[in-house]
Specification:
There is one protein chain. The C terminus is likely disordered. The protein has about 500 residues and is α+β, with helices and mostly antiparallel strands. Helix 4 runs antiparallel to helix 5. The longest helix has about 70 residues. The chain has three domains: about 160 residues, no CATH class; about 120 residues; about 170 residues, Histidine kinase-like ATPase, C-terminal domain (Heat Shock Protein 90). The protein is rod-shaped and about 185 Å long. The chain has eleven helices and eleven strands. It binds adenosine-5'-triphosphate and magnesium ion (MG).
């Protein structure tokens, strides 16, 4: 017999449940059996009253009528001889009294009225016979029966439970274990082993057959999906490889372009500058050289923007942070902006507002931050006709700190008194090739890539770039760049 199911929790639970149910049912059926046995035996015991009524009463009446007291004694002894009868009492009309046994106040008793039918039809009262019956013997017999019946019933219930368990194990549990082992151990991508039930084939499929069929179908589906998936993975790897190759070709093209185009352009700019400062060259030609210089610078600016965008697309731009003296950087930004104002020949004041509570150094990529700020100040210088441009640097306020930088970071703002940017346009200006005022842009040139590059660079360094909803202090536009956390003490010391 396979008793493996006793070792697994389900088998043990089945055994315990069967035993519990078996015990309860056994006790219940024992109770029913005993009650019915008690009633039967009680009925048997009280049958003596009917026998006295039908067999002895007439003879006793005859003996009393004829004053045959010997006969009366014999009859009373005969009644008292029954083991269940505890007391017999006869009181005659003539005052005689007979007693057998001891009075027991038993609830089971009967009184017989003894009479004699005279020939003239009158009925003569002869006395009363009282018979008391004890059920102690019945109770004793039922008590003895109790244990035998209970133990027999328990044994039957337990045997039935074990037999049922064996049958359940043979018919169901061992197959379920077999199915579980198969699902657990079979690697369907490599194993060709099919799930089979170890039992005789059935004419009509049952639930186990349905489970096996469902698992086989599922396995077939998984195998076919797996095949398709493998093919897809191979194809994707191939395309990834091709994309990587294309990217590297593109990167090297960009590098070459950057070098091949910028080098001659710088040479052109250099020669144009020489022409501009050569006093031997007539003024008219020097003016042409200045115009050509401006056009070449614009061309270089546009070329730089396109190349930068390509480098961002190829993930070729790396951010490398180091503790940076932000005050020094801010002064450089002010100088560059002032130079841009001179370039545009405008009368604009450039102010620098550095918060005194700023830390000495901040952990950031100075070159990339400068690239963003320069783009912002270039725009300010380009689009503002007169008034002010302000560059401000301050630590983040508590309400501006983020999860990634709970200790706070740095906010750089560039504000100007130019035409301003209305709410609807604020969302668009960071899109590539977006320029708001066609007229202005025709005058100023540009590709509409500056802010898109700034936004991507700021995302790359985990910073945020936005336009203020309401610029203050008389400014019409304010760009905010929120970046990085202050460098740690050791970084500040180096
Ligand atoms: N300070 C500003 N004041 C008013 N408008 C601005 C300001 N900065 C940007 N803009 C608007 O946003 C548009 C996009 O700016 P972005 O820097 O991306 O492009 P661009 O300056 O026109 O060209 P590029 O930067 O490529 O030379 C600008 O064309 C301009 O319309
Ligand atoms: Mg710009």
């Amino acid at each position: 017999m396979n008793i493996g199911f006793f070792k697994d929790p389900l088998g043990v639970r089945l055994v315990l449940a069967s035993l519990l149910i078996g015990s309860v049912l056994s006790i219940f059926s024992t109770g029913i059996q005993l009650v019915s046995s008690f009633n039967r035996q009680k009925q048997d015991a009280t049958a003596i009253f009917e026998q006295i009524e039908t067999v002895l009463a007439d003879t006793l009446e005859q003996a009393l009528w004829t004053f045959d007291f010997d006969q009366v004694n014999i009859l009373l002894d005969g009644i008292a001889a029954n083991e269940d009868i505890t007391h017999v009492e006869l009181i005659s009309q003539t005052g005689h009294q007979w007693d057998r046994g001891t009075p027991s106040q038993s609830p089971v008793q009967q009184v017989f009225d003894l009479t004699y039918d005279q020939p003239d039809g009158r009925v003569q009262d002869l006395g009363k016979l009282r018979v008391e019956l004890s059920l102690d013997a019945v109770f004793e017999r039922v008590r003895q029966q109790f244990w035998v019946t209970l133990l027999t019933n328990l044994a039957k219930a337990y045997l039935a439970a074990v037999a049922l368990l064996v049958v359940v194990n043979q018919m169901i549990t061992r197959h379920l274990r077999n199915i579980a082992d198969h699902v657990d151990e079979t690697d369907i991508s490599t194993d060709k082993k099919q799930l089979v039930l170890h039992r005789a084939k059935r004419k009509v499929a049952d639930d186990l057959d349905h489970i096996v069929t469902a698992i086989r179908r599922f396995e077939a589906r998984v195998v076919s999906d797996l095949g398709a998936l493998k093919t897809e993975v191979v194809e994707r790897r191939k395309s990834e490889e091709q994309a990587r190759e294309a990217l590297s070709v593109r990167s090297s093209f960009i590098g070459t372009m950057s070098h091949e185009v910028r080098t001659p352009l710088n040479a052109i700019l250099g020669f144009l500058h020489l022409i501009e400062i050569d006093e031997a060259v007539p003024e008219r030609q020097r003016h042409y050289a200045r115009v050509a210089t401006r056009a070449s610078q614009q061309l270089l600016h546009q070329l730089n923007n396109v190349l930068e965008m390509s480098r961002l697309d190829s993930n070729a731009v790396m951010i490398s942070t180091r503790p940076t003296d932000i005050r020094r950087l801010a002064r450089q930004w002010q100088d560059t902006t002032t130079a841009a104002i001179h370039f545009h020949q405008k009368d604009i004041e450039v102010t620098l507002d550095v918060d005194p509570s700023l830390d000495e150094k901040y952990e950031l990529d100075g070159a990339r931050v400068t690239q963003i700020v320069t783009n912002l100040t270039d725009n300010a210088a380009k689009f503002t006709q007169s008034g002010n441009i302000r560059i401000a640097v301050r630590p983040t306020r508590p309400d501006e700190t983020s999860d990634s930088c709970p200790d706070g970071g740095l906010v750089i703002s560039v504000s100007d008194t130019g035409p301003g940017i209305d709410e609807a346009q604020r969302r668009r200006i960071f899109d590539r090739f977006t320029q708001l005022d066609a007229g202005l842009n025709r005058t100023h040139g540009g590709t509409g890539l500056g802010l898109a590059i700034c936004l991507e660079l700021s995302e790359l360094m985990g910073a945020t770039l936005s336009v203020s909803e309401s610029a203050r202090d008389g400014f019409s536009t304010e760009f905010l760049l929120t970046i990085g956390c202050p460098a740690g003490p050791e970084a500040q010391n180096d």
